[in-house]
Amino acid sequence: MDSNLKDLLRFVEGYLGEDGVKVFRALLDSDKELSYNDIIAKTDLDEQTVRRVLYELNDLGMVIYKRVQSPEDGRFIYYWLVNSYGINQALLNRKRITLERLKARLSHEMEAVFFLCLNDGIRLSFDEALELDFRCPKCSSLLVQEDRNPYIEPLRRLVEKLSKEVEDERRSLSD
Ligand SMILES: [Zn+2]
Questions:
Q1: Residues 63-83: pLDDT tens digits?
Q2: pTM of the entire structure?
Q3: Distances (CA, A) of 78 to 18, 51, 64, 70, 137
């Protein structure tokens, strides 16, 4: 299964539980719009549950409907379908949140840089070293930056990759 799709189903499950996943999958797997009755037949859920779930999915912008008047008795029939635009928007929002978390983590890791005096092995945080103009408090020799924090580079690459994805998707959605 497509990883975006998996992500999406996890998202639906988090919001609406197993019933939400059943209804949403029925719509995803169908190549045409589905009425309440079609969805009930495909999911074995009762009508009230199907209505509630569709209402919630619609509220999340993940499904849309069209209303058709029956030529026989004039009653309205609702046909439901997946809103691909809304889905992409929801996925993009999730990616944005992940990106913000990674950025915060990266800046935290960048702050965790230490400075050393090679003569007496004194180790100071960036702030402490800054305070002392990067001079050792004991022998006044210039402090050197400790070997890079090994988390920074992979994190930076991940942030770059995700930023680019978010930017590309944002652009393609606003076209
Ligand atoms: Zn020193």
A1: 999 999 988 899 999 999 999
A2: 0.59
A3: 23, 11, 10, 10, 76
* The pairing of beta strand 144-145 with beta strand 114-116: antiparallel
147 CA from centroid of ligand 1 (Å)? 18
Q: How far is the CA of 122 from the centre of ligand 1 (A)?
A: 7
Helix (H) or strand (E) holding 163: helix 152-174
Distance CA 106, CA 131 (A): 23
Give 121 Cα–ligand 1 centroid separation in angstroms: 7
Domains of the chain are: 3-82 (1.10.10.10), 88-174 (no CATH)
Distance 112 CA to ligand 1 centre (A): 21
Match 């549950």 to its residue by tokens.
49
**Model confidence over 94-114: pLDDT tens digits?**
888 889 999 998 888 777 778
157: burial class by Cβ within 10 Å (0-12, 13-18, 19+)? exposed
